[in-house]
């Protein structure tokens, strides 16, 4: 599948797969700023033309587990109609201990030129919800968090 991509700045890096069989393509930071909420925002200098019926999903790289930040919206969504710059926004990690909260990460550990996230482009069906008074029975039923026993 081919997807049109536009470089918004000369230093933008066209995403590519790091290894054969990878699902996500790495995105590289071309700019950095801290927003009014204290979030670290990285631009990629890229804009995509994702076809109707597809969605781009933005994920942090696994190296984020070694950093003191997390992606603010967990998974970013690039809708097919969006033509703006693809950006990543990170917040400092909050640590919860003994009913207290502390915030880690006074300096951001990614820099312009680093691979900061991944994009996966997948098809999605158009959904129409059908209201019903009854749903089918399953083994799990209404069991929620931890209901599988492990």
- Total domain count: 1
Question: Largest sheet, described in full?
Answer: 4 strands, antiparallel
Question: Mean pLDDT, rounded to whole units?
Answer: 83
The number of distinct β-strands equals 12
Q: What is the CATH architecture term?
A: Distorted Sandwich
Please outline the helices and strands.
Blueprint lengths: L3 E4 L17 E4 L2 E4 L5 E4 L2 E4 L4 E7 L8 E3 L4 E3 L8 E6 L1 E4 L2 E4 L11 E9 L27
Antiparallel strand pairs: 1-5, 2-12, 3-4, 4-9, 6-8, 6-12, 7-9, 10-11
Fold and architecture overview:
Helices cover 0% and strands 37% of the residues. With 150 residues, it is mostly beta strands. It has a single domain (4-123), classed as Deoxyuridine triphosphatase (dUTPase) (Deoxyuridine 5'-Triphosphate Nucleotidohydrolase, Chain A). It has a four-stranded antiparallel β-sheet, with no helix packed on it. Strand 3 (31-34) and strand 4 (40-43) form a beta hairpin. It is globular and about 55 Å long. The termini are far apart.
List keywords for this structure.
150 residues, mainly beta, Deoxyuridine 5'-Triphosphate Nucleotidohydrolase, Chain A, 4-stranded antiparallel sheet
Summarize the structure.
The protein is mainly β and 150 residues long.
